[in-house]
Amino acid sequence: MENERSTAARRRAQAVASAMRVFADQGLTTSAVQQIADEIGVSQPYVFRLFGSKQALFLACLDELVERVCVVFRAAAAASPADPLLAMGEGFRDLVSDGVVSGLWLQACAAARRDEVVARRCRSALAEVLAQADTLTRAGSGELAGFLADGSLVMLLQALGMDLSGGTRAAVDSLRMERTSA
């Protein structure tokens, strides 16, 4: 029985990792649980047995997203106690660089417009990430709002395929130049 639970827990983690990528690219309503099942080598009914529904799988992905962000924040703050907010921002940019976290978050926000369960989970996710940033930095509300805005901008620019290697300001300057040359 313990081996079966271990296998189910391992399959559940594999399904979440796969689903994060699939949902990031295809969204909740058009993504195929079959694609997730195929990636991890199980049947579609087994995925549903693990989670109960596609929405529950999506919510598990949001929980994993929050966990990943909080892990990055804790590591960055520990590595740079003199300026944890700056380090956390740099860590966050690295985290979203592959498009999975930003794509999943943007899909979640889109789904939240019509699904109150997803909206509640998104609000809870933001609250948890902000609480973690507050705990690690003791920044004020204004600083935290700016930090959240910068993170949102990073995800938006990343989703649009902007080069962020020079930072967000350089990417914004690039957009400004694109507008003036058009």
Automatic annotation (TrEMBL):
Annotated DNA-binding residue span(s): 32-51
Keyword terms, alphabetized: DNA-binding, Transcription, Transcription regulation
Record flagged with keyword Transcription: yes
UniProt-listed InterPro entries: Homeodomain-like_sf, HTH_TetR
Pfam family, one: TetR_N
Residue ranges of domain HTH tetR-type in the record: 9-69
Molecular-function GO terms, alphabetical: DNA binding
PANTHER family: HTH-TYPE TRANSCRIPTIONAL REGULATOR YJDC, TRANSCRIPTIONAL REGULATORY PROTEIN
Record's protein name: Helix-turn-helix transcriptional regulator
Organism: Actinocrinis puniceicyclus
Source organism phylogeny: Bacteria, Bacillati, Actinomycetota, Actinomycetes, Catenulisporales
